[in-house]
Structure formats: structure tokens, C-alpha cells
Amino acid sequence: MYSENRDDLLTRVASLYYEHDYSQQQIADLVNTSRSNISRLLKEAKQKGLVEIRIHKRIPTVPSLEREFQDRFGLHQAMIVDSSIGDGDERLAAAGQLAAWYLDEILRPDNILAIAWGTGVAAAVEAMAIHPVMHVQVVQMIGSVGSSVSDTDGPELARRLANKLGGQYHYLHAPLFVDSQTVRDMFLEQPTIKSTLELARMAHVALVGIGTTEPEAASFLRAGHLTLTQLQELRAQGAIGESSGKHFDIDGRGNFDINHRVIALSLNDLKRIPYVMAVACGHLKRRSILGAIRGGYIKALATDSLTARAVLDEADKV
Predict the structure, then answer these.
(1) What distance in Å separates the CA atoms of residue 251 and residue 237, rounded to the nearest whole number?
(2) Segments forming the whole domain that contains residue 165
(3) Do 90 and 200 sit in the same domain of this protein?
(4) Is 52 a domain residue?
(5) By CB atoms within 10 Å of each CB, which of 113, 137, 268, 308 scores lowest?
(6) Residues 273 and 171 in one domain
(7) Are residues 310 and 191 in the same domain?
(8) pLDDT tens for the chain, residues 1 to 318
(9) How far are the Cα atoms of 101, 103, 126, 134 from residue 50, in angstroms, in the given order?
């Protein structure tokens, strides 16, 4: 009985009990041990995080708005939380949970998942259930933003998600933003960075956020990569948002010099990934969400109803 790896034994016992409805005595007979030992093994599996028991509270959504989003913008999936459930933090957490459920549906064993950074991505990672036998490879698709936002930075999120999905994580050992295109190109020639980005390009699924250039919520400003003056200059050029560190305008065009200083997958790389799940909430992100949709950079969106209606209103204007 004990010739197999301990965690493999715990996973097998837990799977028989929780997924296949075997009784503890049936499992004990199968693995040639006592029922009381099976009870201890199940307890150990929960303590080690191999089993996670969740009570899924219903998240109120707005199906009519979800259908309108999918029909109008051609998204694979739109998941829209009813904004009446609470404040901004509660709505973002609920959107993250919806995104996590969507990822549960589309991920398959041994898939590659590319991950970005930000509060929306962190909300989805936090909500993901533990699947220790999925063996999903999680790849950081953008450079590290910096220690000031470590809880929502790419390396930490990649590690946490890979641990939940029973797979390896691959760090992109580079900063997100550098001083010039020349420096960026030097980083991209490094073998470890090149191989990590090549793996990210092979991803079946990507999990991203959507940032804005609105000063009150601009990620690059908050992380210290741009000054307020530089951000205002970028806005004057037409940049309204970014995803995976790459900026774009209201129609999704990404022809901005700043993008040549970012170490990450390109916007065209992002478009080629079959499933790109974005989590983004907030009125200030209405234009950037619209730009990301028009650019074809996302295939699924989790947001709240106030944000969704603001995106639709913006689409009617421009």
C-alpha cells in the first residue's frame, strides 16, 4: 500500500471518497488498510490542501446583459455580476469567482496557461479551486512589475495558480518595463527569457487584466513606471488602456512607442491564444475594456453590471 508516493495515495483516496462516492470501508478494502486509517488519510488530504471543500454561494448575474455583450462583441463568454451585491471590492471578488469557474470548465490536464498580473487576475487566482492532478503549466507572460505590488505581480500569481493546478510555474526573469527598446531587445535575446515567452505563446488559455490610462486607476502610474506627466502625454497620443503591459487606443490599435519598452507577449501574440479570460471592473475601465474587445485581445470577460453598461454606452459614442 505504501509503495506509492504519499501525496498520490492521499489524492487517490480522496478521489475515491469525494468524486466516486466510495464509502470509507470500501476504500479500506481496496487499499488493504483499516477504515479508521482511511479517515485519517482524508483528514490529512484536507490539511495538505489536496482537498478543498467549498460552499459555492450563488453569485447574482445579469443574463440579458451577458447575452447582449456576447452578441454585440462576439465574445465566447461574458460573465456579468449584478452590481447590487456590494461595493467595488465585493464585485471584483465575485467577478474573479465567475472567471475561476469558467477556467475550471475550459482547462484540461497538461494545458499551458499564460498569466499576466493585477487585481483582477489576483481575484480569479484566489477563487480557483485546487486541482492537484491537472498538471497545468502556468507561464508568466509579462515581466515583473516590482516589489511594491508583489501580491498581484506575475511571479507570485504564477506560483500560486500552478500550486493549485498541480503543475509547474515558469517565471519570466525580467522587469516589465525598461528604459528603451534597445534594452528591451537585449533582454529578449536572453535564452531563459526567450524560452519562457516561446512557451507562453503556446498557451491554450491566458488570464489577464485590463488597465486604464485614467490617472486615478492607471497601473503604470501606481507601479511607478510612468510619471503623471508621462501618463498625460500617453493619453494625448490616444492610449486609453493596456492589457499584459501593452497599451492600445479605443479601437484596439497598439501603435505606441511605450510598447517597445515592455517585456511581454505582444498584442498579436495575445490574439493568437485560443482562450483569453479577462477580469476587469470599474467605471474608469469602460474605455479600456472596449478597446481590448475591439482589438480582439480578449475572448471572455468577467465584470460587473455597472461597468458593462458603461462599456455599452461608450460603444454607442465611438
Answers:
(1) 13
(2) 63-317
(3) yes
(4) no
(5) 268
(6) yes
(7) yes
(8) 334 578 888 888 988 888 788 889 999 998 889 999 999 999 898 888 788 766 556 899 999 999 999 999 999 999 999 999 999 999 999 999 999 999 999 999 999 999 999 999 999 999 998 888 889 999 999 999 875 557 788 899 999 999 999 999 999 999 999 999 999 999 999 999 999 999 999 999 999 999 999 999 998 998 888 999 999 999 999 999 999 999 999 999 999 999 999 999 999 999 999 999 999 999 999 999 999 999 999 999 999 999 999 999 999 997
(9) 18, 19, 16, 12
Q: Is residue 58 part of a domain?
A: no
d(CA 282, CA 280) in angstroms, rounded, equals 7
What's the Cα-to-Cα distance from 102 to each of 127, 184, 240, rounded to whole Å? 11, 34, 27
Q: Does residue 271 share a domain with residue 205? A: yes
- Give the angle subtended at the CA of 112 by the CAs of 103 and 164, to the nearest 5°: 55
Distance CA 61, CA 43 (A): 35
Residue 295 identity: G
Measuring CA to CA, which residue among 316, 307, 313, 262 is closest to residue 285? 307
Residues 11 and 157 reside in one and the same domain: no
Does residue 160 sit in the same domain as residue 19?
A: no
